[in-house]
UniProtKB/TrEMBL annotation:
Keywords: Kinase, Transferase. It comes from the Bacteria. GO terms for biological process: polyphosphate metabolic process. GO terms for molecular function: polyphosphate kinase activity. Residues 18-44 are annotated as: Disordered. InterPro entries: P-loop_NTPase (IPR027417), Polyphosphate_phosphotransfera (IPR016898), PPK2-rel_1 (IPR022300), PPK2-related (IPR022488). The keyword Flavoprotein does not apply. NCBIfam families: PPK2_rel_1 (TIGR03709). Residues 37-264 form the Polyphosphate kinase-2-related domain. This is Polyphosphate kinase 2 family protein. Residues 35-44 have a biased composition (Basic and acidic residues).
Length: 290
Protein backbone atom coordinates (compact mmCIF):
# COMPACT_ATOMS: atom_id res chain seq x y z
CA UNK A 1 0.00 0.00 0.00
CA UNK A 2 1.36 3.44 -0.91
CA UNK A 3 2.08 5.59 2.13
CA UNK A 4 -0.39 8.25 1.05
CA UNK A 5 -3.19 5.69 1.16
CA UNK A 6 -2.59 5.29 4.88
CA UNK A 7 -4.64 8.49 5.14
CA UNK A 8 -7.97 6.67 4.97
CA UNK A 9 -9.74 9.96 5.69
CA UNK A 10 -8.56 13.40 4.60
CA UNK A 11 -7.22 14.86 7.87
CA UNK A 12 -9.13 18.05 7.09
CA UNK A 13 -12.35 16.06 7.32
CA UNK A 14 -11.15 14.00 10.27
CA UNK A 15 -10.08 17.04 12.30
CA UNK A 16 -12.32 19.91 11.22
CA UNK A 17 -14.56 21.28 13.96
CA UNK A 18 -18.20 20.78 13.02
CA UNK A 19 -21.40 21.48 14.94
CA UNK A 20 -21.09 18.21 16.90
CA UNK A 21 -17.56 18.77 18.09
CA UNK A 22 -17.10 18.06 21.81
CA UNK A 23 -13.77 19.00 23.33
CA UNK A 24 -14.43 17.18 26.62
CA UNK A 25 -14.63 13.79 24.93
CA UNK A 26 -11.94 14.48 22.32
CA UNK A 27 -9.19 11.82 22.35
CA UNK A 28 -5.91 13.70 22.62
CA UNK A 29 -3.92 10.53 22.08
CA UNK A 30 -5.71 9.60 18.86
CA UNK A 31 -4.56 9.59 15.24
CA UNK A 32 -7.74 10.33 13.28
CA UNK A 33 -7.57 9.44 9.60
CA UNK A 34 -4.13 7.79 9.69
CA UNK A 35 -4.19 4.01 9.46
CA UNK A 36 -0.42 3.55 9.71
CA UNK A 37 1.78 3.48 12.79
CA UNK A 38 4.47 5.83 14.02
CA UNK A 39 7.17 4.37 11.75
CA UNK A 40 4.93 4.72 8.70
CA UNK A 41 4.20 8.29 9.68
CA UNK A 42 7.82 9.21 10.24
CA UNK A 43 8.80 7.67 6.91
CA UNK A 44 6.07 9.52 5.01
CA UNK A 45 6.65 12.95 6.58
CA UNK A 46 9.77 13.99 4.60
CA UNK A 47 8.26 12.68 1.36
CA UNK A 48 5.20 14.84 1.85
CA UNK A 49 7.39 17.67 3.03
CA UNK A 50 9.15 17.74 -0.33
CA UNK A 51 5.87 18.04 -2.14
CA UNK A 52 4.78 20.79 0.22
CA UNK A 53 8.05 22.59 -0.38
CA UNK A 54 7.69 22.53 -4.15
CA UNK A 55 4.11 23.79 -3.95
CA UNK A 56 5.25 26.56 -1.64
CA UNK A 57 7.93 27.59 -4.10
CA UNK A 58 5.32 27.80 -6.83
CA UNK A 59 3.12 29.95 -4.62
CA UNK A 60 6.11 32.19 -3.97
CA UNK A 61 6.88 32.45 -7.69
CA UNK A 62 3.24 33.27 -8.37
CA UNK A 63 3.42 36.02 -5.73
CA UNK A 64 6.52 37.47 -7.37
CA UNK A 65 4.62 37.74 -10.62
CA UNK A 66 1.71 39.66 -9.14
CA UNK A 67 -0.31 36.81 -7.60
CA UNK A 68 -2.27 37.85 -4.53
CA UNK A 69 -2.63 34.54 -2.75
CA UNK A 70 -1.10 33.60 0.57
CA UNK A 71 -1.64 31.01 3.29
CA UNK A 72 -1.88 31.70 7.00
CA UNK A 73 -1.29 28.90 9.49
CA UNK A 74 -2.55 29.87 12.94
CA UNK A 75 -1.13 27.70 15.73
CA UNK A 76 -2.76 27.62 19.13
CA UNK A 77 -2.30 25.32 22.08
CA UNK A 78 -1.34 25.37 25.72
CA UNK A 79 2.28 25.15 26.87
CA UNK A 80 4.05 21.95 25.73
CA UNK A 81 1.36 21.20 23.11
CA UNK A 82 4.09 21.29 20.47
CA UNK A 83 3.68 24.59 18.63
CA UNK A 84 7.45 25.04 18.48
CA UNK A 85 7.87 21.53 17.11
CA UNK A 86 5.43 22.29 14.29
CA UNK A 87 7.37 25.40 13.38
CA UNK A 88 10.66 23.50 13.42
CA UNK A 89 9.66 20.15 11.92
CA UNK A 90 6.77 21.03 9.60
CA UNK A 91 7.27 24.63 8.54
CA UNK A 92 11.02 23.93 8.63
CA UNK A 93 10.63 21.70 5.58
CA UNK A 94 9.93 24.66 3.30
CA UNK A 95 12.32 27.35 2.11
CA UNK A 96 12.59 29.99 4.88
CA UNK A 97 12.31 32.73 2.23
CA UNK A 98 8.76 31.65 1.61
CA UNK A 99 7.73 31.76 5.25
CA UNK A 100 6.66 34.71 7.38
CA UNK A 101 6.80 33.61 11.03
CA UNK A 102 5.41 35.64 13.92
CA UNK A 103 5.09 34.78 17.62
CA UNK A 104 2.71 36.61 19.89
CA UNK A 105 3.60 36.82 23.56
CA UNK A 106 2.39 39.16 26.28
CA UNK A 107 1.60 42.44 24.47
CA UNK A 108 4.04 45.30 24.92
CA UNK A 109 2.88 48.62 26.29
CA UNK A 110 2.67 50.00 22.76
CA UNK A 111 0.66 47.00 21.55
CA UNK A 112 -1.70 47.35 24.49
CA UNK A 113 -2.40 50.96 23.53
CA UNK A 114 -3.84 49.76 20.20
CA UNK A 115 -6.76 47.55 19.18
CA UNK A 116 -5.83 43.88 19.77
CA UNK A 117 -5.77 43.15 16.01
CA UNK A 118 -3.21 45.92 15.37
CA UNK A 119 -0.15 43.81 16.12
CA UNK A 120 -1.66 40.86 14.26
CA UNK A 121 -2.33 42.80 11.06
CA UNK A 122 1.27 43.94 10.94
CA UNK A 123 2.39 40.31 10.65
CA UNK A 124 0.02 39.11 7.94
CA UNK A 125 1.81 37.21 5.17
CA UNK A 126 2.54 39.08 1.95
CA UNK A 127 1.37 37.44 -1.31
CA UNK A 128 3.16 34.18 -2.07
CA UNK A 129 4.12 33.53 1.51
CA UNK A 130 3.02 31.05 4.15
CA UNK A 131 2.45 33.08 7.29
CA UNK A 132 2.78 31.17 10.55
CA UNK A 133 1.37 32.53 13.79
CA UNK A 134 2.77 30.95 16.94
CA UNK A 135 -0.15 32.06 19.12
CA UNK A 136 -2.40 34.69 17.62
CA UNK A 137 -5.41 36.98 18.07
CA UNK A 138 -7.08 34.00 19.73
CA UNK A 139 -5.07 34.73 22.88
CA UNK A 140 -7.40 37.72 23.15
CA UNK A 141 -10.30 35.35 23.83
CA UNK A 142 -8.24 32.71 25.69
CA UNK A 143 -5.72 33.98 28.25
CA UNK A 144 -7.42 37.37 28.25
CA UNK A 145 -10.71 35.72 29.14
CA UNK A 146 -9.31 33.27 31.69
CA UNK A 147 -7.22 35.89 33.45
CA UNK A 148 -10.01 38.47 33.22
CA UNK A 149 -7.74 41.02 31.59
CA UNK A 150 -10.75 42.81 30.08
CA UNK A 151 -14.44 42.80 31.12
CA UNK A 152 -16.63 39.97 29.83
CA UNK A 153 -18.67 42.12 27.44
CA UNK A 154 -15.42 43.15 25.74
CA UNK A 155 -14.07 39.64 25.09
CA UNK A 156 -17.52 38.30 24.23
CA UNK A 157 -17.80 40.79 21.38
CA UNK A 158 -14.51 39.58 19.92
CA UNK A 159 -15.74 36.26 18.50
CA UNK A 160 -17.95 37.98 15.94
CA UNK A 161 -15.32 40.59 15.27
CA UNK A 162 -12.69 37.92 14.61
CA UNK A 163 -15.03 36.04 12.27
CA UNK A 164 -15.72 39.19 10.24
CA UNK A 165 -12.03 40.11 10.16
CA UNK A 166 -10.98 36.64 9.00
CA UNK A 167 -13.70 36.64 6.32
CA UNK A 168 -12.21 39.78 4.86
CA UNK A 169 -8.77 38.26 4.86
CA UNK A 170 -10.03 35.21 3.02
CA UNK A 171 -11.78 37.40 0.46
CA UNK A 172 -8.48 39.19 -0.07
CA UNK A 173 -6.75 35.94 -1.13
CA UNK A 174 -5.46 34.47 2.14
CA UNK A 175 -6.30 30.86 2.92
CA UNK A 176 -6.51 30.55 6.70
CA UNK A 177 -5.71 27.24 8.39
CA UNK A 178 -6.40 27.34 12.11
CA UNK A 179 -4.84 24.54 14.09
CA UNK A 180 -5.27 23.89 17.79
CA UNK A 181 -2.90 21.35 19.29
CA UNK A 182 -4.66 19.61 22.14
CA UNK A 183 -2.47 17.85 24.66
CA UNK A 184 -3.87 15.88 27.62
CA UNK A 185 -3.37 17.04 31.20
CA UNK A 186 -1.24 13.98 31.98
CA UNK A 187 0.98 14.42 28.92
CA UNK A 188 1.45 18.10 29.68
CA UNK A 189 2.58 17.13 33.18
CA UNK A 190 5.18 14.75 31.74
CA UNK A 191 6.48 17.28 29.26
CA UNK A 192 6.80 19.95 31.93
CA UNK A 193 8.67 17.48 34.18
CA UNK A 194 11.02 16.69 31.32
CA UNK A 195 11.76 20.38 30.97
CA UNK A 196 12.61 20.49 34.66
CA UNK A 197 14.75 17.37 34.60
CA UNK A 198 16.89 18.34 31.61
CA UNK A 199 19.24 21.31 31.89
CA UNK A 200 19.04 21.79 28.11
CA UNK A 201 15.30 22.29 28.49
CA UNK A 202 15.26 24.62 31.48
CA UNK A 203 15.14 27.63 29.18
CA UNK A 204 11.78 26.38 27.91
CA UNK A 205 10.30 26.25 31.40
CA UNK A 206 8.57 29.24 32.83
CA UNK A 207 7.25 29.11 36.42
CA UNK A 208 4.11 30.79 35.03
CA UNK A 209 3.40 27.55 33.11
CA UNK A 210 2.31 25.96 36.40
CA UNK A 211 -0.07 28.80 37.04
CA UNK A 212 -1.61 28.27 33.59
CA UNK A 213 -1.79 24.52 34.26
CA UNK A 214 -3.69 25.16 37.48
CA UNK A 215 -6.35 26.95 35.39
CA UNK A 216 -6.80 23.94 33.08
CA UNK A 217 -10.64 23.76 33.31
CA UNK A 218 -11.03 27.47 32.53
CA UNK A 219 -8.73 27.17 29.51
CA UNK A 220 -10.63 24.14 28.25
CA UNK A 221 -13.87 26.07 28.51
CA UNK A 222 -12.34 29.03 26.68
CA UNK A 223 -11.00 26.76 23.93
CA UNK A 224 -14.37 25.02 23.59
CA UNK A 225 -16.00 28.41 23.00
CA UNK A 226 -13.35 29.38 20.44
CA UNK A 227 -14.14 26.21 18.49
CA UNK A 228 -17.89 26.60 18.87
CA UNK A 229 -17.98 30.27 17.90
CA UNK A 230 -15.16 30.78 15.40
CA UNK A 231 -14.99 27.64 13.29
CA UNK A 232 -16.50 29.13 10.14
CA UNK A 233 -16.76 28.00 6.56
CA UNK A 234 -14.23 30.66 5.59
CA UNK A 235 -11.77 29.74 8.30
CA UNK A 236 -12.46 26.43 10.03
CA UNK A 237 -10.62 25.11 13.06
CA UNK A 238 -8.73 21.83 12.96
CA UNK A 239 -8.31 20.32 16.39
CA UNK A 240 -5.28 18.06 16.38
CA UNK A 241 -4.55 15.46 19.07
CA UNK A 242 -1.10 16.37 20.36
CA UNK A 243 -0.06 13.57 22.72
CA UNK A 244 1.63 11.81 19.80
CA UNK A 245 3.99 14.39 18.38
CA UNK A 246 4.65 12.34 15.26
CA UNK A 247 0.92 12.39 14.50
CA UNK A 248 0.39 16.11 14.97
CA UNK A 249 3.36 16.86 12.71
CA UNK A 250 2.18 14.43 10.06
CA UNK A 251 -1.41 15.69 10.16
CA UNK A 252 -0.48 19.37 9.89
CA UNK A 253 1.94 18.65 7.04
CA UNK A 254 -0.87 16.84 5.26
CA UNK A 255 -3.38 19.64 5.85
CA UNK A 256 -0.93 22.22 4.53
CA UNK A 257 0.06 20.12 1.53
CA UNK A 258 -3.51 19.30 0.53
CA UNK A 259 -4.45 22.96 0.88
CA UNK A 260 -1.57 23.96 -1.38
CA UNK A 261 -2.45 21.22 -3.87
CA UNK A 262 -5.93 22.66 -4.12
CA UNK A 263 -4.60 26.18 -4.56
CA UNK A 264 -2.59 24.65 -7.40
CA UNK A 265 -0.13 27.51 -7.89
CA UNK A 266 1.48 27.55 -11.33
CA UNK A 267 5.02 28.38 -12.37
CA UNK A 268 4.87 31.78 -14.03
CA UNK A 269 5.37 31.77 -17.79
CA UNK A 270 8.59 33.54 -18.83
CA UNK A 271 8.02 37.08 -20.09
CA UNK A 272 11.05 36.80 -22.41
CA UNK A 273 11.81 34.65 -25.42
CA UNK A 274 13.46 31.55 -23.94
CA UNK A 275 14.93 30.29 -27.22
CA UNK A 276 16.37 33.69 -28.01
CA UNK A 277 17.92 33.89 -24.55
CA UNK A 278 19.47 30.44 -24.95
CA UNK A 279 21.11 31.55 -28.17
CA UNK A 280 22.29 34.76 -26.58
CA UNK A 281 23.77 32.77 -23.68
CA UNK A 282 25.57 30.36 -26.01
CA UNK A 283 26.97 33.38 -27.84
CA UNK A 284 28.66 34.52 -24.61
CA UNK A 285 30.98 31.47 -24.94
CA UNK A 286 32.57 29.29 -22.26
CA UNK A 287 35.69 31.31 -21.53
CA UNK A 288 35.46 34.45 -19.41
CA UNK A 289 36.11 37.54 -21.50
CA UNK A 290 39.61 38.91 -20.99
P1 LIG B 1 5.78 30.70 24.71
O1 LIG B 1 5.28 30.46 26.09
O2 LIG B 1 4.77 30.36 23.64
O3 LIG B 1 7.11 30.10 24.45
P2 LIG B 1 6.19 33.52 25.37
O4 LIG B 1 6.64 33.12 26.73
O5 LIG B 1 6.98 34.53 24.62
O6 LIG B 1 5.98 32.27 24.43
O7 LIG B 1 4.75 34.17 25.46
C1 LIG B 1 3.63 33.47 25.60
C2 LIG B 1 2.76 34.07 26.67
O8 LIG B 1 2.16 35.28 26.20
C3 LIG B 1 1.67 33.11 27.04
O9 LIG B 1 1.60 32.95 28.42
C4 LIG B 1 0.43 33.81 26.51
O10 LIG B 1 -0.72 33.51 27.24
C5 LIG B 1 0.80 35.27 26.60
N1 LIG B 1 0.00 36.09 25.69
C6 LIG B 1 -0.06 35.99 24.34
N2 LIG B 1 -0.93 36.89 23.85
C7 LIG B 1 -1.45 37.55 24.89
C8 LIG B 1 -2.40 38.58 25.02
N3 LIG B 1 -3.02 39.10 23.96
N4 LIG B 1 -2.67 39.04 26.26
C9 LIG B 1 -2.04 38.52 27.33
N5 LIG B 1 -1.14 37.54 27.28
C10 LIG B 1 -0.83 37.05 26.07
Amino acid sequence: MAAKDLWSTDPRDALRVGPDFDLASFDRNGQPGWDGDKDDGQAYLPERGEEMSELQERLFAEGREGGKRSVLLVLQGLDTAGKGGIVRHVVGMVDPQGVALASFGVPTEEERSHHYLWRIEKELPPPGRIGVFDRSHYEDVLVVRVDELVPEDVWRARYDEINAWEKELVEGGTTIIKVALMVSYAEQGERLMERLERPDKHWKFNPGDLDTRSKWPAFQEAYADVFRLTSTEDAPWYVVPADKKWYSRLAITEILTRTLEELDPQWPVADFDVEEMKKALVATGEDAPA
